[in-house]
Amino acid sequence: MELDNQHWEQLRVYAHKLAVGYNLPPHTSAEDVAQDAMVSLLKALPEYRESRGPLIAFSRAVVRNAVTDAVRRAYRKFGNGFDSLEECGPKEEPSDDWEKDADNKVIVDQLLSALPPNRRVVMEMAYLKEMSRVEIAEILGVTPQAIGLIIKKSLKELRELVK
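Given the sequence above, the corresponding structure tokens read:
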């Protein structure tokens, strides 16, 4: 039994949601933590045996443990100011409704593809990568106010598409 592309994407999103849930130390990105988790999963897959239960459950456990380990490593490297990992840990477990999450991602991708490329990039940075307007403005070489205007226009256009 193998993981198909949909499951890989769901596991990547799950890892990212777990990582985002932590109060990560400086110089640590949720995307890096999620990538580390996916590499750990690739390494662990040869160890999987059907007698251990469903492959997807095994995979989620590997990803969850890998995210926790990556966060611990980051705190050891950069310091955390917390007495235990539980104090900075995720507030809640990410949604288990993978089909709904996957469907929502497809819908969001379709809606964003209707935007002009320059506005689509800004919306992806703001909402999918959770970057601030200041961060986006620095990367694109414009003012945060210009980013705000692009977001406002894009949201208006997206609302019209959804109606």
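Confidence is low (pLDDT under 50) at residues 80-88. Try to locate this feature in the token string yourself.
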